[in-house]
Design goal:
single chain; 121 residues; alpha/beta; 4-stranded parallel sheet; 3 helices
Length: 121
């Protein structure tokens, strides 16, 4: 997770506040389409061609992303990331980072997440 005390983000997470990052091969999500958990799950399912049985829980998301990471590395670029889960309670954002961090630490292939313009909304 991002260190709330202002420390550096973990190796799997990049936060870009200026300029457009050049991230070849990244699956791109628009922050405006990820303001709620169901919208985030739908955007991920579409961008990554995740299976229909994705479900609606963080555990279900972790399972399908782990399956995806079994096939090869994955890079996610979230533009306007300040909108990511903006319509959800603050704890949901922390849960997403925890899920992604766990996957990055334990998956068969690397996970990289780039949050572009990640100022809180």
């Amino acid at each position: 997770m991002v260190d709330p005390s202002g420390g550096e983000p973990p190796e799997w997470l990049t936060v870009c506040r200026a300029g457009t990052p050049d991230v070849p091969g990244a699956s791109v999500l628009a922050g405006a389409t990820t303001r709620t958990r169901p919208a985030l799950f739908a955007a991920l399912a579409e961008a990554l061609a995740l299976p229909a049985h994705l479900g609606s829980t963080w555990d279900a998301l972790a399972d399908v992303l782990r399956d995806r990471l079994d096939a090869g590395p994955l890079t996610l670029l979230i533009d306007d990331a300040g909108q990511l889960l903006a319509d959800e309670p603050a704890g949901q954002y922390a849960l997403l980072l925890a899920v992604l961090g766990n996957l990055a630490a334990t998956a068969a292939h690397p996970l990289r997440v780039v949050l572009h313009d990640a100022s809180p909304s």
